[in-house]
Structures are given as C-alpha cells and as structure tokens.
Amino acid sequence: MICKCISVVLLGLLSFSSVPSGFCQLAPDTQSQIQTHLSEAHKFLNENRPDAAIPEFRAILALDPSNIDALGNLGVLLFFHGDYAGAIPNLHSALQRKPDLWKLQALLGMAERRTGKPQTARTDLEASFTQLQDQKIRIEAGLELVELYTSAEEMDKASAIVSTLRALDPENQQIIYTAYRVHSDMAREDAMNLALIAPHSALMYQLMSHEAARRGDTPAAIRDEREALRLDPNIQGVHFELAELLNASMSENDAEIKSQYELALKQNPLDEKTQLRLGAIAERNHDQKTALALYTQAVALQPDDPEACYDLGKLLFSVNEIEMSEKLLTHAAQMDPTNANIHFRLATVYKRLGRDDEAKREVAQYQKYKDLKEKLRETFRELHVDPKRLAQEEGVDGSKSFP
Which of 103, 81, 84, 105 has its CA nearest to residue 93? Predict the structure, then answer.
C-alpha cells in the first residue's frame, strides 16, 4: 500500500525552489550541471521512471552535498526501493536543513524501524504523525507507530492511534484488522491481570461468562454468571447479563428471566435496555399498558436508540397511533439506516397512511438490506463465524432480531 504514496511524497518535494541555499556560491559551470541533472531527474519522475532519476540525484549531490531537492528525493526513491539503510542518511540530511518536512520525517521513522532502530523511529514517527496532512502517509505512519507501541506493550497508546486511524478511513481493511488485533490483545491482557489479582472473585466469573458466551457456550456462561451472583449479589450488570443469557438459551422459565430483569432495573432504574426487555415481556403477555409505559420511558432515556424507537413505534402502530408511530420509526431509520426490519415496519405505516410511493421505497430498502444480511450470514458460515457472537464482541447496536 505504501508504494502508492511515492508520487505524493515526490510532488511535495518538487515544490522546493530549484535554487537551494548556497547555490549561487557554486561555480557557474557547476550550477549549470546541477540544473541539467535536476531537469533530467524531474523529467524521469514525470515519466514515472524513478530508477532513472536516482543516478541524476546522486550526480547532483556529488556536485552539491547540501542540495535539499536531491537529498529529499533520493531518500524517498531509495525508501520505496526497499533500500532503507541507504535512504536514512539522505532523509536525515534533508530534515537537518529543513525540519518541517513532515512526510520525510515519517518516511525516516519507517526506515529506522525497518532497520532495527525502534527508539529513533518512534521519535520521528511521533513527531510527524500529528503534522501529516496526506491521509495515505498518515495512515502508514500510524500503523508503524501501532507496531512500535504493541512491541513495547504500550497498548493504551496503540489503541489511541488506532482510534485516530479509524476516523481517517473507517473502511480500511488493514486498520480494521489492526484495531481487532490491538483490542484483542488488550482484552487478553486485562483478563490475565484480573486472574492474577482476583482469581476466584465474582468479577472473574463474570469475565469467564463473557468468554464462554463469546465461544457460543451459553450453558457455561449461565453457570459462571450464577456463580458471580452467588459470590456478590450486588455486582453491577450481572442480573441483566444473566437474563440475556437465559433469553438466548431459549429458556422456558419466563418467571426467572423477568425476575432477573426486574432485579437489574432495581439495581439501575435508568437502565434503558432493561426497560425494553421488560416491555417486550409485557407485550408478549398482552399487557400493552405496561409495555407502552416501559417503552415510553426507554425512549425518554435514550431518544436516539433505534431499538427503543422501533419497539415503541411498533406498539403504537398496533394501537392505531399511526402518526406517532411514523415519527418514531422514521427516527429509528435515521439512526440505523441498514436495519431491514425498521424499513419493513415503515412500509406498513406508509401503506396505512396512503403514501404508496414512500411505502414502495421502504419495501425496496427492506429487500436491499435483507439480501445484504443474507450475504453476510453466508460469509460468516464460510468463515465459521457465529454472526450473533461477532455482533456481541463488536458491541453492535440493534444486533437483536426485531420481531
């Protein structure tokens, strides 16, 4: 990927003056030779012939060792040829003469890391990273910094760089993979630390439950949550997590599930997700009044939660509050535009309101995202990945299947 950056770096260097400091003190014949080599080098670069430009820049430096244009461009060309050791002195000399060449400093840091100089590499990459304006080079410099921080086991710093990179290019595959690797390492490190500090604590059992759920072993996850609850009945989040696991296990013990959610709500009366779950239980039991109160409170707590807006909008539709339903479902679609079920429900609302064109549009959106979801499921099956587990690991909102 970094090879694609060569033209960007070189273009930046070609903006230098062709008459560097000290040039006028050179003999006229020397000046003429330098200009000839510069013209040839730049012509080769414009023709995308970097190999041919290298000897021209070397010839310039033989005549004028302080020529920044030649130093910088030769350093860049050697870097992209994989001659990192050869690139370093040229890049370093150019930076000594003009310290604000951030692209060159980033390349210098990368070359230093690749030649076994992690400390100087870190210094140059840290100094240049925040100053870089070109996205491609900033991403490459950031990925190199992540490697350095990871090697030094400074995972908090690695995570901070990853967050910056994800904001720069959210769909970059390398960044997504690096984020996964860094956060996985951090999770393992925290798990080991807790195991050393409190191996038989309620929190350790809660952690073990999360790991079991991640592996798809719901019965083991339930056992660990129960043990955490036995050790510390007041531990935060355990009632909600146990209720969720019981729900996922298709337990027929609705009374226990409801009881655990009620205990979770008692522990945290402002827990919007618990109110949604209790509202769903009330709705299944045909208690629309209680469900309406719980959903309404959930939306009041988190008005931008698409799940809460969907649940309340769906219930309002069933009691013929069509206009309020339309407002909530429209907002849910804005918050979660790829949710097929929200689009399907909106289509039924528009149909009821006689807005046939909008209904057709929502049906098309429903079909689009439904097909995409099926393709993702097929991909997960091919990769032997449980999509529900992946959604839980990534903390994806709206990962539950809306009825």
Answer: 105
* Fold matches, 2-140 and 304-397: yes
- At 388, the pLDDT band (50, 70, 90 cuts) reads low
What whole-number distance in Å separates Cα of residue 23 and Cα of residue 37?
A: 14
Span 2-140 CATH architecture: Alpha Horseshoe (1.25)
Q: Which tokens in the block code for residue 158? A: 């690695």
Distance CA 319, CA 287 (A): 12
Place of tokens 């041919």: 52
Angle formed at CA 157 by CA 152 and CA 163, multiple of 5 degrees:
135
CB-count burial class (<10 Å; 0-12, 13-18, 19+) for 89: middle
Give the global pTM: 0.70
pLDDT given for residue 99 in this prediction: 93
Quote the pLDDT of residue 376. 81
Domain ranges of the chain: 2-140, 304-397
For CA atoms 337, 401, 258, 211, the dihedral sign is: negative
CA-closest candidate to residue 165, choices 186, 189, 185, 146: 146
Alpha-carbon span 98 to 33, nearest angstrom: 24
Q: Is the pLDDT of residue 396 over 60?
A: no
- Contact criterion met (CB below 8 Å) for 9 and 128: no
Answer for the pair 115, 138: CB distance below 8 angstroms, yes or no: no
DSSP state of 131: T
Rounded Cα–Cα distance for residues 60 and 160 (Å)? 42
**304-397 has CATH 1.25.40.10 classification:** yes
- Average confidence (pLDDT) over 267-285: 94
